[in-house]
TrEMBL record, chain A:
SUPFAM superfamilies: HydB/Nqo4-like. This is NADH-quinone oxidoreductase subunit D. NDH-1 shuttles electrons from NADH, via FMN and iron-sulfur (Fe-S) centers, to quinones in the respiratory chain. The immediate electron acceptor for the enzyme in this species is believed to be ubiquinone. Couples the redox reaction to proton translocation (for every two electrons transferred, four hydrogen ions are translocated across the cytoplasmic membrane), and thus conserves the redox energy in a proton gradient. One of its GO terms (molecular function) is oxidoreductase activity, acting on NAD(P)H.
Automatic annotation (TrEMBL), chain B:
One of its GO terms (molecular function) is NADH dehydrogenase (ubiquinone) activity. Residues 27-150 form the NADH:ubiquinone oxidoreductase 30kDa subunit domain. Belongs to the complex I 30 kDa subunit family. This is NADH dehydrogenase subunit C.
Automatic annotation (TrEMBL), chain C:
Belongs to the complex I 20 kDa subunit family. One of its GO terms (biological process) is aerobic respiration. Keywords: 4Fe-4S, Cell membrane, Iron, Iron-sulfur, Membrane, Metal-binding, NAD, Quinone, Ubiquinone. GO terms for cellular component: respiratory chain complex I. It comes from the Bacteria. Residues 1-32 are annotated as: Disordered. Residues 80-190 form the NADH:ubiquinone oxidoreductase-like 20kDa subunit domain. The lineage of its organism: Bacteria, Pseudomonadati, Pseudomonadota, Alphaproteobacteria, Rhodobacterales. The keyword Thylakoid does not apply. GO terms for molecular function: 4 iron, 4 sulfur cluster binding; metal ion binding; NADH dehydrogenase (ubiquinone) activity; quinone binding. This is NADH-quinone oxidoreductase subunit B.
UniProtKB/TrEMBL annotation, chain D:
The keyword Iron-sulfur applies. This is Glutamate synthase (NADPH/NADH) small chain. It comes from Celeribacter neptunius. Keywords: Iron, Iron-sulfur, Metal-binding. The keyword Iron applies.
C-alpha cells in the first residue's frame, strides 16, 4: 500500500491556550478557502483551511452566508405568521421546524392536537428524515467520488418529494404542520404509491450498499478517518447519528417519545468506530429503519379523524407569558425550538437549536487539524451539517 | 427533579422553579453562583449535555436573560437555568461569564451572543471575531431596540408600485366622504381640549 | 405584523476598519528580501469591464448567439435555498444536461450565474466576485420571490431585496422555491432571449458599472476589494 | 481488503440495461392535485375584506381598487393584488379567506425577464390558470377564525311572559371574548351602520377587556349606545364578513357588553364635555327622542346652549313610549339621557310646542330650531269598524305611562312590523297577569319570511304564545253594538300589482274571523305636525306630506331643521345618524353667523 507520512517537525506548536500561532509570511503555510463557492462544501458556508503541504494544520468554520435573521423576523410576526417562515430555517429537512414550532405554540397556548394529526405529523417527519438521509448518503458518496450513488439517491429522494407534493401541496417547503394540527388528510391511494417509492428506495439502497460499504475505495478513505473520541461527545454537544456511531445509543424518539413514537417499534442502531465509515453506516441503517417506520405508520394510523383543532382567531392570537423548549430527533441529531412568549400577540424570542450548530462549528474545528485536504469534504459531509440551521 | 432542586436550594439561591413539563424545568439562578451550579450539575448530577445557550432581551425591565439549557441524558431531564444580567445599552458593556472550559461548544454560543446581543464573554475563545455578520456597524440585531424593518427600509430599495387601501377607509372615501372620520373627530376633540 | 418603528435610525457613522492582512506593509520573503506590499492593489487586477462588441455581420452574430444559447454553463454556487432544486436537475430525473446545461465548479468555466433565492450581504459580496470572474458574455438568472422584491425576507436586515440593483439579471423565475420544471422553463426562455440577441446583461453591467458599484457599496460596508476583479 | 470489496462496485453496471428514469417532457408536467400554485380569485365571491392582506406575513398582498368592482353594502370594492416578488405560497391567505373566494391553482410556471411583471390581481388580470380546477383548497371548514356565534343567555318564554323584565342576559365575559375574538377587523360593517360607528375598534376593546376605552369609542359616534346595544336593528350584522361561512358577529351584543361593564357613575368621568369656550348661541330642539337628543348632545359639546322641549312628561321619545320595557329597561334609558344632560343639555318636559310655547316664540328666542318630533300618530286601516280599533303606538305609550289600559281576553293585532310585535307581546304579558293565559292573534299582509319585524322578535312572540297569521288582509272589524267581537280577514294573493304599486289582491273564498275583544292597528305611524301652526305650514316646502329638507336636514326655512323619524326612518340608529348630520349643519350655520358678528 502506498502511504504518505508528512514531516510534522516543522509544524507550529500550539500555545498553552491551545491556539496556533501561524505566521503565514514564513511561506510554509497556505491559506485555502474551502467554500463558499466550492464543490466540496455542503451548502453555502466555508472553512478557512491553513495547510502545510496537503495536510491541514488549522481550520476555521465561517458561516453567515445564509443568515436571514429568522429569530429576529419571527419576533415581529404574529404566531400564525411565523408558521410559513420556520420551515426555511433548514432547507433539506424543513418539517422539523414546523413540528417543533407548532408543538411549542400548542404547549404554551394549551391547544390539543387531534390523534390523526399526530400520526400524519409523524409520517411527515419520517418522510423528511428519509429525504435528509438520502441527501447525506448522496453527499458522502459524492464527496468520495462515488457519483453514481449520488445520482440514485437524488432520484429516490425526488420520488419521495412527489409523495410530499401530493400530500402537502409543495415539494420542498411543505408548510403543512400548522399549530393545532395539519392541513389535510392523506390523498386517495397514497399508501400504494408510497409503497412503490419505498421499494424503489430499497432496490437502490441495496446497490448503494455494495458500492459503499463493500467497496475498497470507500473503506480505505473512510475507515479510521475523522475519528471523534466518544469522550468528547458531551463536551461538544454531539447528538444523533454522529453520537450513535460512537456507541451512544441515544435517540430522542426513544428516550422521550413525542407524537406517536411510543406506539411504534424501531431499533436505535449504533456503531463503535466513530469514524466516517461508522457514521455513514449508522445513517444507512437508520434509513432502512425509516423506511420500515413509514410502512409501520401507514399501517397503524387511523383511517379517519379530525386533522385540525379549532384555533382562536389567528389574526389576533395572544399567548400568555411563558417559555418552553421542544425537541425532536432529526436526521442529524437533537433539533429543538426554544420559545419565549410575553403575553402579546408576538413571540418574545424563538431560538432554534440545530444540531449542525455544534457539529459544524466547534466540533469540526476540533477535528480538522491533521486531516488531509482531500478528506475535509468527506469529513464535513459525514458530520451531516446543513449551514442554514447554524446561522438561521 | 424536585428533589434535585431541594438539594440545591440548601446551598444556592434559586428562584421559584417553573415545572413546564415532566421533563423540563426552568429555574432562575444568581449570576455568581451559576458556574458552581453548572459544574455541580455536570459532574455530580449527570447534566452532561449543554443543549443550547441563548439570551432573551427584556428591554422594558432592563435585563438580559441568559438561558442555559442542560440535559441529563440518562434521566431524560432538561433544566433551563436563567441568569438575569443588567442590560447595558452600549454593545459589549453587558458581560456574562464564559463557560467554554466546561463545554467547549459554548464558545460558539458565546460568540453568537456577543455578536447578536452585544453580551460579551471575556475570556471566551475568538469571542470578538465576526461570526455570522460581516462588516456590521449597527446595534446588535437581536436586541429589541433594533428594528429590522426600519433598518431594511433605510438600507435596501424596494420595488416601487406597491400601495394599499384599507377597506374601511376606502369605503368611507367612496360611500360617505363627507362624514367625519370617527377617530379624527376624537382627536379633534382632544386637541380642542388642549 | 408589527408596525415599523419610525424612531429607529440606522447607524451611518461607524466605518468598518480595514482588516489587518489587507493593509499595506513591509514583508520579509523567505529568501530574506524585504518588499512593500499593498494587498488591495497587488493581488487583484484593476480594470473596468468593457462592453462586448457585436460581430460585424448579423449572420455571424446570430450564429454566436445560437451557440451561446446552447451552452449554458452554470456556476455551481448555491447562494440560497433554491440550490436544493438544482440537484434534481443535475441528476437523471430532470436531466438538464440534455438541453446543453451543465454545472461547473469555478466561475472561469461558467457563463450563467444562478442566484438561487435570497442573497445575504455576506454572500452578495462573493456573488459579485464570482460574477465578475466569469468570462463574457455571461448571464444572471434570479430564482424565486426573494430576487424580485425581497420575498419572505422583505423585512430582514441582512438580505438584499432587489437583485437587479446589484447585478444585471436576464431572467426571473417565480416561485418559492421554483420547481425544477419551472427552472427548466426559465433556462429555455433565457435561451430564446439569448438567441434573439437580447441577453445583454453583461453589457448593461459594463455600461452602468459605476452605478452598480455605488449600489453594491451602499450595502457592503466592509468593501475590501478593488472595484473590479477578474 | 478482500476481493469482494474490489469487485462489488462493478455491480452498478447492471443498471445499464434499466429503462431511463428521465422525465421525457418536463415542460408539461402537471403538479399534484393539491399543489399550492398561482392564485385564483372568484370576483363574485370576494368581498374585499382584506383578511388575506392582514394575515400575509410577506406583505405580498395589497388591497387595491379595481375597475368594475364598486364599494357597496358588504363589499369594499377592493381586491387583493399579489406580488410574486414577495409571495411564499404558504396559502394562509386561502385558509383565512372569509368567503372562500381566494384559491390556488396547481400551475407553477412563470418566467419573465421583467422583474416588475410579477404582480397581478387574481380574477381581474386574465391568467392561463384562472379556470384551472385543480390546486390547493382548504380541506375543512375554516379553522383560523371562529365560525359559530357565542350563545346569548336569555329568559325562557315561561319565565318572561308574566312580566316586563328584560329578556336578554347580556354576554358573560367568556362569551364576549369568544365573540369578539371572531372579528377579523375588516370594517365592512362601518359603512353599513347609519352612524358609521367604529365597530372593529370597539370590538377589539372588548377583546382586550378595556371597556372604558371601548365606551369612549362608542360615544364618539353614538350617545345612545346603551339603547342601541339592546334594540338596534343591527344592519351591520347583515354585511359582516363572518356571515359568509358561519354566523355574523353579534355586534349589537358586544356593544351592549361594553356599556354593561362600565359602572354607571364612571360614564360621567369618561364622557366629559370637551373644554370648549361657550359660544353663547342657543338652539331649541323639539322632541326628546334619539334624533333630537343626539343633535343636542353634539351641539352642547361644541359649546352651544341647547334646550330640548318635550311634550310628554319624560324624555326618550319612541325609545321610552314605543319600545316595551322588556326590550329596553327604563333605568337604562334614564341613565343614557342623564349622560346627555351632563353635557349641559337642558330638557324641559311637558312643554308641548303649540300649547305651552309657539314656534314663533322659539324662532325669535333661539338661533336655530330643530324639529325632531317623531311619528306618534298611528295610521289606520280604514276598514269598516276601524274607528273602534286601537292604535298600537297609543296603547304602548299608555302602558309606559302606567295608565290603565283595557286588557280583554283576546286581542287581534294588524301588522307585521316591530311595533306590531311590541304591542302583541305587551298585551300578552298583561293578559298573562290578568287571566294567566295568552290570547293574541297577529295578522299581516306579508308572508312570514317577508315580515318587516326582526326575525328574533317574531320567534320570541311565537314562543310567548302569540299566534301569527301571515298573508291575511283585514276586511272588517266586526262589531256587536259598541263592542268589538273580532277581525275578518281574507287570504292575500298579492300585495303589489305588476307595476309595484301597493294594491293587495285577496282570495275572497279564504275568509277567517279572528275572535277578539280588541283590535290593534300597527301598520305604521305619522307625525303630528299641528304644532307648526298654519302660517309656518304654509311657508314650508313639502314633499308628499313630509317636510322637505336638504341633504343636511335643513328645511326651506333658514332657522329650522328637521331630524329623525319625521324626515327619515325607521329606527334609533338612523335617528342618531340624522341627529349628527343636523348638528353638523346647524353648527356650520352658527359658526358662519359668529364670524359675521365679529
Amino acid at each position: 500500500m502506498f502511504s504518505f507520512k508528512p514531516d510534522r517537525s516543522q509544524y507550529p506548536e500550539p500555545g498553552p491556550d491551545g491556539k496556533l500561532e501561524i505566521d503565514l509570511e514564513t511561506g510554509k503555510y497556505l491559506k485555502l478557502w474551502h467554500g463558499p463557492n466550492h464543490p466540496g462544501i455542503t451548502g453555502n458556508m466555508s472553512v478557512e483551511l491553513t495547510v502545510c503541504g496537503d495536510e491541514v494544520v488549522d481550520g476555521k468554520t465561517h458561516v453567515g452566508y445564509l443568515h436571514r435573521g429568522f429569530e429576529k423576523l419571527m419576533e415581529r410576526r404574529t404566531f400564525i405568521q411565523v408558521f410559513p417562515i420556520v420551515c426555511r430555517v433548514c432547507v433539506p429537512e424543513p418539517d422539523f421546524n414546523e413540528y417543533c414550532y407548532a408543538a411549542a405554540v400548542e404547549e404554551l397556548a394549551d391547544i390539543d392536537v387531534p390523534e390523526m394529526a399526530n400520526w400524519i405529523r409523524t409520517l411527515i417527519l419520517e418522510m423528511g428524515r428519509f429525504n435528509s438521509y438520502m441527501m447525506a448518503m448522496g453527499g458522502i458518496s459524492g464527496a468520495l467520488g462515488l457519483g453514481v450513488v449520488g445520482q440514485w439517491m437524488t432520484y429516490t429522494r425526488d420520488l419521495m418529494l412527489d409523495r410530499f407534493e401530493e400530500l402537502t401541496g409543495a415539494r420542498i417547503y411543505h408548510m403543512f404542520i400548522l399549530p393545532g394540527g395539519v392541513r389535510a388528510h392523506l390523498p386517495e391511494g397514497f399508501e400504494a404509491r408510497m409503497e412503490e417509492v419505498l421499494q424503489t428506495a430499497e432496490k437502490y439502497l441495496a446497490d448503494a450498499e455494495k458500492l459503499m460499504f463493500h467497496s475498497s475505495v470507500f473503506k480505505t478513505r473512510t475507515k479510521g478517518v475523522g475519528y471523534i473520541d466518544p469522550a468528547l461527545f458531551e463536551r461538544y454537544g454531539v447528538t444523533g447519528p454522529n453520537a450513535r456511531a460512537g456507541g451512544v445509543a441515544k435517540d430522542v424518539r426513544k428516550d422521550s417519545p413525542y407524537l406517536v413514537y411510543d406506539q411504534l417499534e424501531f431499533t436505535v442502531h449504533t456503531e463503535t468506530e466513530s469514524d466516517i465509515y461508522a457514521r455513514t453506516l449508522v445513517r444507512y441503517k437508520d434509513l432502512q429503519e425509516t423506511i420500515q417506520l413509514i410502512r409501520q405508520i401507514l399501517r397503524k394510523m387511523p383511517k379517519t379523524g379530525e386533522v385540525m383543532s379549532n384555533l382562536p382567531n389567528v389574526l389576533h392570537w395572544k399567548i400568555p407569558r411563558g417559555e418552553t423548549y421542544i425537541k425532536g430527533e432529526s436526521s442529524r441529531g437533537e433539533y429543538g425550538y426554544y420559545l419565549v412568549t410575553d403575553g402579546t400577540g408576538y413571540p418574545r424570542r424563538i431560538n432554534v437549536r440545530g444540531p449542525s450548530y455544534t457539529h459544524a462549528m466547534a466540533l469540526l474545528e476540533h477535528l480538522i487539524p491533521g486531516t488531509n485536504i482531500s478528506d475535509v469534504a468527506a469529513l464535513m459531509v459525514s458530520l451531516h451539517t446543513y449551514p442554514p440551521e447554524i446561522e438561521r | 427533579m424536585r428533589e434535585l432542586l431541594y438539594r440545591l436550594k440548601d446551598r444556592y439561591h434559586l428562584g421559584t422553579p417553573t415545572f413546564q413539563r415532566d421533563d423540563l424545568t426552568f429555574v432562575t439562578v444568581k449570576r455568581d453562583e451559576l458556574r458552581a451550579i453548572l459544574t455541580e450539575l455536570r459532574d455530580v448530577e449527570g447534566f452532561t449535555h449543554l443543549t443550547f445557550l441563548t439570551a432573551v432581551d427584556w428591554i422594558e425591565e432592563g435585563l438580559f436573560q441568559l438561558t442555559y439549557m442542560i440535559n441529563n441524558r440518562e434521566a431524560n431531564q432538561s433544566l433551563g437555568l436563567r441568569v438575569m444580567l443588567t442590560r447595558e445599552d452600549e454593545p459589549g458593556a453587558t458581560t456574562g461569564d464564559t463557560i467554554h472550559d466546561l463545554w467547549p461548544t459554548a464558545a460558539t454560543y458565546q460568540r453568537e451572543l456577543n455578536e447578536m446581543f452585544g453580551i460579551n464573554f471575556p475570556g471566551s475563545p475568538r469571542v470578538d471575531e465576526e461570526f455570522i455578520l460581516e462588516g456590521w456597524t449597527d446595534l446588535p440585531p437581536y436586541r429589541r431596540d433594533f428594528d429590522t424593518l426600519a433598518y431594511s427600509q433605510q438600507t435596501y430599495r424596494e420595488r416601487p408600485g406597491r400601495g394599499r387601501s384599507d377597506p374601511k377607509a376606502h369605503m368611507q372615501e367612496t360611500l360617505y366622504p363627507d362624514y367625519p372620520k370617527p377617530r379624527e373627530a376624537a382627536h379633534a376633540h382632544k386637541e380642542e381640549a388642549k | 405584523m408589527k408596525d415599523v418603528d419610525d424612531k429607529f435610525r440606522k447607524d451611518t457613522e461607524k466605518q468598518v476598519p480595514l482588516r489587518e492582512e489587507l493593509k499595506p506593509r513591509k514583508v520579509t520573503t523567505p529568501d530574506g528580501q524585504e518588499i512593500d506590499i499593498d494587498p488591495l492593489r497587488d493581488y487583484f487586477c484593476d480594470a473596468k469591464p468593457k462592453v462586448h462588441p457585436k460581430a460585424y455581420s448579423k449572420i455571424v452574430e446570430d450564429f454566436y448567439n445560437w451557440a451561446r444559447s446552447n451552452s449554458l454553463w452554470i456556476l455551481g454556487f448555491g447562494t440560497g435555498c433554491g440550490a436544493i432544486e438544482m440537484r434534481p436537475l443535475m441528476t437523471p430525473r430532470f436531466d438538464a444536461y440534455r438541453y446543453g446545461i451543465q454545472w461547473r465548479p469555478t466561475p472561469r468555466q461558467a457563463n450563467l450565474l444562478v442566484i438561487s433565492g435570497y442573497l445575504s450581504v455576506k454572500t452578495l459580496k462573493r456573488a459579485i466576485r464570482a460574477y465578475e470572474q466569469m468570462p463574457s458574455p455571461k448571464y444572471v438568472m434570479g430564482l424565486g420571490s426573494c430576487t424580485i422584491n425581497g420575498g419572505m425576507y422583505w423585512d430582514s436586515y441582512n438580505t438584499i431585496k432587489r437583485l437587479d440593483d446589484y447585478l444585471p439579471v436576464d431572467m426571473y423565475v417565480a416561485g418559492c422555491m421554483p420547481r425544477p420544471e419551472a427552472l427548466l422553463h426559465g433556462f429555455m426562455e433565457l435561451k430564446r432571449v439569448i438567441r434573439e440577441g437580447k441577453g445583454e446583461g453583461a453589457n448593461t453591467y459594463a455600461e452602468n458599472f459605476d452605478q452598480y458599484k455605488v449600489n453594491q457599496k451602499a450595502v457592503i460596508k466592509d468593501w475590501d476589494m478593488p472595484d473590479y476583479n477578474w | 481488503m478482500s476481493l469482494r470489496d474490489v469487485l462489488s462496485p462493478f455491480t452498478a453496471w447492471k443498471h445499464v440495461i434499466d429503462t431511463p428514469v428521465t422525465i421525457q417532457d418536463p415542460f408539461n408536467r402537471e403538479a399534484a392535485d393539491r399543489y399550492r400554485g398561482f392564485h385564483q380569485n372568484d370576483m363574485d365571491k370576494c368581498i374585499g375584506c382584506g383578511s388575506c392582506e392582514e394575515i400575509c406575513q410577506n406583505d405580498a398582498i395589497d388591497m387595491v381598487p379595481v375597475e368594475g368592482q364598486n364599494a357597496g353594502p358588504g363589499d369594499s370594492g377592493l381586491r387583493p393584488m399579489i406580488d410574486y416578488g414577495r409571495c411564499c405560497w404558504c396559502a394562509l391567505c386561502v385558509d383565512v379567506c372569509m368567503t372562500g373566494s381566494l384559491t390556488m391553482s396547481n400551475e407553477y410556471t412563470w418566467v419573465d425577464s421583467d422583474p416588475d411583471a410579477f404582480r397581478f390581481i387574481p380574477g381581474v388580470d386574465g391568467k392561463s390558470w384562472d379556470l384551472e380546477p385543480k390546486g390547493y383548497q382548504r380541506e375543512d371548514t375554516r379553522r383560523l377564525t371562529g365560525t359559530t356565534r357565542a350563545p346569548m343567555g336569555e329568559m325562557e318564554p315561561e319565565a318572561r311572559i308574566g312580566n316586563f323584565d328584560e329578556i336578554v342576559d347580556g354576554f358573560t365575559r367568556e362569551q364576549a371574548v369568544i365573540e369578539a375574538d371572531r372579528c377579523v377587523e375588516c370594517g365592512l360593517c362601518v359603512a353599513t351602520c347609519p352612524a358609521h360607528m367604529d365597530i372593529p375598534d370597539y370590538i377589539s376593546k372588548v377583546r382586550d377587556g378595556d371597556y372604558e376605552g371601548g365606551l369612549q369609542i362608542l360615544y364618539e359616534t353614538n350617545p345612545f349606545s346603551q339603547a342601541c346595544g339592546r334594540i338596534c336593528t343591527h344592519k351591520c350584522e347583515t354585511t359582516c364578513a363572518a356571515m359568509h361561512e358561519g354566523d355574523a358577529i353579534a355586534i349589537r351584543w358586544l356593544k351592549r357588553d361594553i356599556t354593561d361593564n362600565v359602572p354607571r357613575e364612571r360614564y360621567f368621568d369618561l364622557i366629559q364635555k370637551p373644554d370648549v369656550p361657550e359660544t353663547g348661541q342657543k338652539i331649541a330642539v323639539i322632541g326628546a327622542g334619539p334624533a333630537g337628543l343626539t343633535t343636542a348632545y353634539d351641539l352642547a359639546r361644541k359649546g352651544h346652549k341647547v334646550v330640548v322641549f318635550e311634550a310628554l312628561d319624560k324624555p326618550g321619545g319612541m325609545m321610552r313610549y314605543g319600545i316595551p320595557e322588556y326590550r329596553l329597561p327604563y333605568d337604562v334609558l334614564d341613565h343614557e339621557i342623564s349622560v346627555i344632560e351632563s353635557m349641559g343639555v337642558e330638557i324641559r318636559c311637558n312643554m308641548r310646542v303649540g300649547h305651552e310655547i309657539s314656534m314663533q316664540q322659539l324662532e325669535k328666542a333661539y338661533d336655530a330650531v330643530v324639529l325632531s318630533i317623531g311619528l306618534h300618530q298611528g295610521r289606520s286601516t280604514r276598514v269598516p269598524g276601524s274607528e273602534k280599533a286601537e292604535a298600537a303606538i297609543d296603547l304602548l305609550r299608555r302602558i309606559t305611562a302606567g295608565e290603565e289600559v283595557p286588557v280583554p281576553e283576546q286581542v287581534a293585532v294588524i301588522g307585521g312590523g316591530n311595533v306590531a310585535m311590541d304591542i302583541a307581546r305587551s298585551m300578552a304579558r298583561l293578559q298573562k297577569v290578568k287571566y294567566d293565559k295568552v290570547g293574541v292573534t297577529i295578522t299581516a299582509l306579508e308572508e312570514l319570511d317577508r315580515f318587516l319585524a326582526d326575525a328574533e322578535e317574531i320567534k320570541e312572540a311565537q314562543e310567548e304564545g302569540c299566534v301569527i297569521y301571515p298573508a291575511r288582509g283585514p276586511q272588517e272589524i266586526t262589531l256587536e253594538g259598541e263592542n268589538v267581537t273580532g277581525l275578518r280577514t281574507w287570504k292575500v294573493k298579492a300585495i303589489f300589482d305588476d307595476e309595484g304599486r301597493f294594491a293587495p289582491k285577496y282570495d275572497e273564498a279564504d275568509e277567517m274571523v279572528h275572535p277578539a275583544q280588541m283590535v290593534v292597528e300597527a301598520i305604521g305611524q305619522m307625525s303630528d305636525i299641528s304644532l307648526l301652526g298654519a302660517e309656518l305650514t304654509e311657508k314650508l316646502e313639502w314633499n308628499r306630506g313630509r317636510i322637505m329638507i336638504d341633504a343636511d336636514g335643513q328645511t326651506s326655512e333658514a332657522w329650522l331643521w328637521a331630524a329623525g323619524d319625521v324626515t327619515s326612518g325607521p329606527d334609533v340608529i338612523h335617528a342618531v345618524a340624522d341627529g349628527h348630520r343636523v348638528a353638523r349643519s346647524v353648527g356650520k350655520m352658527l359658526a358662519t353667523k359668529r364670524e359675521k358678528l365679529q
